[in-house]
Amino acid sequence: MQELFNHGLEKLLQSSINVLGGLYVLSTYGWELCAMGVLLHVLPKTLITRKTGKVNAMYTTVQRSRGRGTDNFVSEVLLNITTVRAFSAERAERESFRGQMQAHEDFRKHVLLIQSLFGFINKTVTEFTNDAFLVLGAWMMLKNGMSLGEFMAFKTYLKTFLDGYNQLSKFYFQVSNMKSTTKQYFQLMDSVPKVKIFQTPEQEQCQDAGFIIPKEACKGSIVIEDVSFSYPSRPTIPVLSSFSLKISSGETVAICGPNGAGKSSIFRLLQRNYSPSAGFMFLDDVMIEDLDINWYRRQIGVVNQDIVLFDRSVSENIAYGLLLAADDDDDDDSGGGGGGGSG
């Protein structure tokens, strides 16, 4: 990709000049010979190049997806190695990894076989078109009285034209590969978060952004009305369906249920890690989607099942959220003081 960006424009310009210049010179030898020479070489090459580009793009996407799956599997096992060892599952995980690697290797062999097949077809068609062009040239020499020198000069100019065309084909092939490689990246960059947050500091300072920061202290009453939810990775599997719950201020509530009942999903929705597919959620009679997300999350205390330790001191880990909130409050206070002084 880096080479394409560094030298792609230069090669594209040079190849275009060779193609256009060669085509102009070839046309001076007569349209019949020029058309037959170009069509015999260009048409098969174009069809094969387009097909090869599409096949390679498809296989590249599948291969990258398989590679990510294997990487995720290895990362998951290594992160939970103590659990794997506790259940004596090392051999089973090793066999599973070996099976994935074998499937990956078989797929790679299949890709190489397809690429070799297209290469063989390309070379065979090229040799056939060269032979056909020589036969055509001999026929033209007999029919129109073209000399051998004129025919060889025409063949030389045709080679210049074809060299430029081959460079354009290679450029197209590289762009096709780059497109398949960067497609998922641009899809991720262009995706819009479903949870509404401030995108820029300018929006955060805008009074009409539509997010509410209550002036009164949070009382803590929560109302969930007819909430339905499915995870984006499994949109057809409902996790919650028309779920409702009311928790008054100061009330202590425990949510119980079997695995997969949606307990964790309820708290993820309350933390605004996701937005519900349907229904409404309120904090102190205000829809949580209308609240400033930073202010809202500071009203929630969380103790997760999985303990996460940052590479920092013990005190910083214990007071992680409090330290960040204190820094933000200091920034707000300093900003407010500055505004008052200037007014």
Automatic annotation (TrEMBL):
GO molecular function, one term: ATP hydrolysis activity
UniProt keyword list: Membrane, Transmembrane, Transmembrane helix
Membrane topology designation: Multi-pass membrane protein
SUPFAM superfamilies, per the entry: ABC transporter transmembrane region (SSF90123), P-loop containing nucleoside triphosphate hydrolases (SSF52540)
Keyword Nucleus: no
Domain ABC transmembrane type-1 as annotated: residue spans: 1-177
GO cellular component, one term: membrane
Main location: membrane
Compartments where located: Membrane
Name of the protein this chain belongs to: ABC transmembrane type-1 domain-containing protein
